[in-house]
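no rush on this but wanted to send it before i forget. theres a chain ive been looking at and ive put its sequence and its fold in token form underneath. please have a look and point out which stretches look like helix strand or loop to you. thanks a lot i owe you, the record is right below:
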Amino acid sequence: MAGSTLHDGLTALNAAPDQKSDDAHGYYTLGEKIVDPVAPTGPIKDRWTTRKFENRLVNPANRRKLTVIIVGTGLAGGAAAATLGEAGYNVKSFCYQDSPRRAHSIAAQGGINAAKNYKEDGDSVFRLFYDTVKGGDYRSRESNVYRLAEVSANIIDQCVSQGVPFARDYGGLLDNRSFGGVQVSRTFYARGQTGQQLLIGAYQAMERQVAAGTVQQFTRHEMLELIVADGKARGIIARDLVTGEIETHLADAVVLASGGYGNVFYLSTNAMGSNVTAAWRAHRKGAYMANPCFTQIHPTCIPVSGDHQSKLTLMSESLRNDGRIWVPKRAEDCEKDPRDIPEEDRDYYLERIYPSFGNLVPRDIASRQAKNVCDEGRGVGPMVGDFRRGVYLDFSDAIKRLGEDAIREKYDNLFDMYERITGENPYEVPMRIYPAVHYVMGGLWVDYHLQSNIPGLFVTGEANFSDHGANRLGASALMQGLADGYFVLPNTIREYLADGPFPKVEESHPAVVEAQQAVKTRVERFLSINGDRTPDSFHKELGHIMWEYCGMERTEEGLRKAIDMIRQLKHEFWNNLKVLGTADSLNQSLEKAGRVADFIELGELMCIDALNRRESCGGHFRAESQTEDGEALRHDDEFAYVAAWEFGGEDGQPVLHKEDLIYTAIEMKQRSYK
């Protein structure tokens, strides 16, 4: 494992980057460099243990006097609410769904990583750490990733104790399977329903605290503004989505666990309600947005079938354990029934290009190669637009080797879901898959304590940027969400809350009044434009721009074009939007208008971030930066930094603050999975 030797953690292994290129000149302002003010030092294996001891405690009597708002009830938010409630804090939990159980974490299928080495195949905490940093193309913080790997084993024990029904082998022990980007089996799973089962476990733990009176639940509430009083996050303004009432909720700290922003692309694997508003409202109040261009395209999704779709469906990456990915060698065979194409006329392109990892290469590589073969004219399935968007995921060899019953036991619900959506039986005909927008590695900037640059505002799970670099390995999202909620945040937020109880903020405070008025003014503006276009029509147009110019491949010319198009779209949005209904009732058109307005602003920042980063790394692929054989080409000497963007005002330019990425435990290498 070249470059993986554990160094002392005390000596920098790379120099600070010095960016010389500036493709985004004129689109942004360069700000001061930043550092993580609470970043740990010393041997990497001791950093988290030492920090947990160093962080101050909050005595039980004071915990009862402190209130924490948590926005989001997925794995990160639900686990945090349960844990902080159990500790004795007063927790206010918010979600826009009608039940916390509808958080998008429930849709995760394949599994959750943990370094338990049950298979005795060479796994370890350090190997999980190494795989995650390498998989993220060396654009993540090593201290944060090592902590994630270190607490991963605790997550499994916690969830088993809650009764999560993980798959077990014949002897009754917990089973594992492999995921892309690794060569060991470390992924724990519950068939294709892992996210659902884990979320139910976190939900049950949270409901226990609801019954105990430490957690107060607010469903069908959407956060529309962050309250920053005297320089600290002290509450939120939320809209009751049923009655339309604008409510003020105050606390001693605010935690955002509101998920990712993949729906900026309109078509994605995310739930249709998933949005960026909570994070974007915080960004506009001063919180840095980090690495927004790092978007993950998942290779294993059901292909788009036409212009009528509003969502795409994920098929678990675990299917790549037994399924073989291929396309015809000749374009003229693409219309044939795949069963009529002989073996010698099939191109198992991942196995051919990456013999060491084969079909288990990381998601960004598998996605890009699927795009390449389809762009060559060898895609399969129906014509959508001017070409076929699909490759085969074939289980015929696995069925011959293991038998249909064994495959059915491992993947039955996934196969059933595929058949219900496509009308094709994957036991008889190969699945068709194509990449789709899935997860985002960008998010609000946080320090090692998961606190943003706004004191008192903490960010967990997919809503922050910290752990995955430029590409998330499979089965790491559930790991990070539960790690943050159960084990990291409860140990770091107490360092901040130890200074409490804090002076009470009244609703008459100028910052509260200002936030209330800002929300009311914004709602009134949406309703008063009275144009001709629906929020959905703007969202769909934005998604087309983002996918075409800031999707799987980005170019300088395309990104500049996208920025101009988004700015024109924003102008039309604020002059030609049509929102039906009123503010004082259930109004989904009004909800969508607010979310689309934030997506439009985010989309522009994503394109500026992608334009500035003239390198290819992970899910960010600049056509101008690739090796001779088409692989992503990083430029560590210029771009080994976190891009933390500060809101520049309504008519101003975003301000770029750089946090240098300095490695002390792993040497940066060019990724290779061959």
In short: The chain has 17 helices and 22 strands. The longest strand covers residues 431-440.
